[in-house]
Amino acid sequence: MLATPRRAKPRPPEVAAQRDLVVEDAATGFCGAVIGLEKSYSGDLVRLEDRHGQSRVFLMLPGAFLIDGKPVTLVRPRTRGPQAPSRTASGSRALPQQRARQARASRLFVEGVHDATLIERVWGADLRAEGVVVESLDGLDNLETALSEFGPAPHRRVGVLVDHLVAGSKEERLTAEVGDNVLVCGHPYIDVWQAVKPSSVRIAAWPDVPRGEDWKTGICARLRWGTPQDGWRRVLAGVNDFRDLEVPLLRSVEELIDFVTLAPDDD
What we know:
Elements: E1 14-16, E2 22-25, E3 31-40, E4 43-49, E5 55-59, E6 65-67, E7 70-75, E8 107-110, H1 113-130, E9 133-136, H2 143-150, E10 158-162, H3 170-174, E11 182-186, H4 215-223, H5 228-237, H6 247-261
Parallel strand pairs: 1-7, 8-9, 8-10, 10-11
Antiparallel strand pairs: 2-3, 2-6, 3-4, 4-5, 6-7
InterPro entries: DUF3097_C (IPR021447), DUF3097_N (IPR053883)
Organism: Gordonia sputi NBRC 100414
Region (Disordered): 76-97
């Protein structure tokens, strides 16, 4: 007897994320109206505002939102989005709409995609205006190779953002001898998630995770956030601008941006 073939699960319908469309984020239950669209290293973002005036951003993943209780996939509408704000997410005055500057020779290196995405989330407009490219190392162990391949020089500076840069740490040892034209700045937090203020992700404090246990997995287990992928969505959704980040991260990123933008142009 032949088995009846299973039908493929239907894909959620695509819905244009038009301004004022009311949707619910399936993972967090946050319900609000669309007030804007943004871009990040992880993909397109939609900004929702609830009835209390609180706004949050969410990744526009397939089936990640609900309309009338049914999953949908939000997509960018073909029409133009809302006008740009007067200030960027980093607090800088927004420049008139213009093409991104040609990329500088200098670079910002960060440890992973989450670091790069948060920097893009808060400093993206500033970086595009200055022509600064952010590159993920996929782990600090790759820093030496990345610097060797890049070849820092007076007009090709490198700024390196490091998680958990504290005395006696592995991170301190890996960045002890980086050579000329390289600046290393860091923050004391175990992971860049922890540089997001607890109040911004609606928790009292970041839980302690014992050494030897994967930090993101442990955090998600203790907060009942599901998988690290689910947890990352919550963290990113909690970051609207610089006010959602801890001062040590803000200070380090600003210092690194100054360092690479003060380098002589290669043109």
